[in-house]
Amino acid sequence: MPKIVHSPDSESRLVQLAVITPERTQESVYRNIPRDWLPPSRVEKRWAAIVIHHSATESGNAAIFDKRHREENHWEGVGYDFVIGNGTDSGDGEVEVTFRWREQIAGAHCGGTPGNWANKDAVGICLVGNFNHTAPTAQQMQSLLKLTRFLQKRYGISKTRIYGHKTTPGARVTECPGRRFPMARLKLMLDS
Prior knowledge:
Blueprint: E1 2-5, E2 13-16, H1 26-29, E3 49-54, H2 62-73, E4 82-86, E5 92-97, H3 99-103, H4 117-121, E6 122-127, H5 138-155, E7 162-164, H6 183-191
Parallel strand pairs: 3-6, 3-7, 4-6
Antiparallel strand pairs: 1-2, 4-5
């Protein structure tokens, strides 16, 4: 808004006041989000969906799955973008970011989809545990909820594009993420 400045020694003049507003940086928009969840902008891609998995093991972490996927499956490494611990080999609810997320490269978590779309266009999240026998821990669900909300907001992913591995369109037949994984509850929690 302009302001008139008058000085007895000079004539009146019009001065334009500058309004300075802080820029909205990634840090301010994603204040409570761990920094390593934000991929490098030079490689960041547009993700279209989220696929949730269980490890089908009682224990594990990203490093253990990385070794197993390299040695047994002959993959480049762990197939998921994120691994959420259950308190055995990593913290309960600890979100581990894998090389696939940091480098924004295709996953190896959901084979059989037409054109390999789920590995190319969907974020793969694995929760440690066998959810045919037990349910995820409360901490795992809280971390999954936070991570899923972040991904939805950042990439415009609707709730209808959040799948369990077994309900991913075109995926091979599987029980993953397990009979006791509360997908309906997760989707209700995303609404609140």
